[in-house]
Amino acid sequence: MTRRVEVRRDEVEFSAVRSQGAGGQNVNKVSSAAHLRFDIQASSLPDDVKAALRALPDQRITDEGVVVIKAQTHRSLPRNQSDALARLQALVDEVLHPDAPRRPTKPTRASRQRRLAGKATRSQVKATRSRVRVGQE
Length: 137
Known about the structure:
By secondary structure, this protein is an alpha+beta fold. The chain has four helices and three strands.
């Protein structure tokens, strides 16, 4: 059973800012980029999710516990807002489903032998490239 926690849209604060980069005259006139601000502590998320979000080493989370996401890939403000909201939801989902811990493994005996045989072959190829010495036999 997978756990799903939805980020409520009324807990998110949006502000429109001007986009960066190319866009011609439009980029100088229209504020189509979206700045999303989400206060972790003031949200309705469960306490364990709040703590896990605060513990993330992510540059989008400020010291005060506010997630700031800037979305500017689309040319319209509503699409950038939904993109920013989706990225925030992905961040929360990432916290809910952490990666499984890696179990260290050992290479098999055959793979070690193949690796050493390859190294020996390569060494032999490089040894044949050496300079031929004239007069010494």
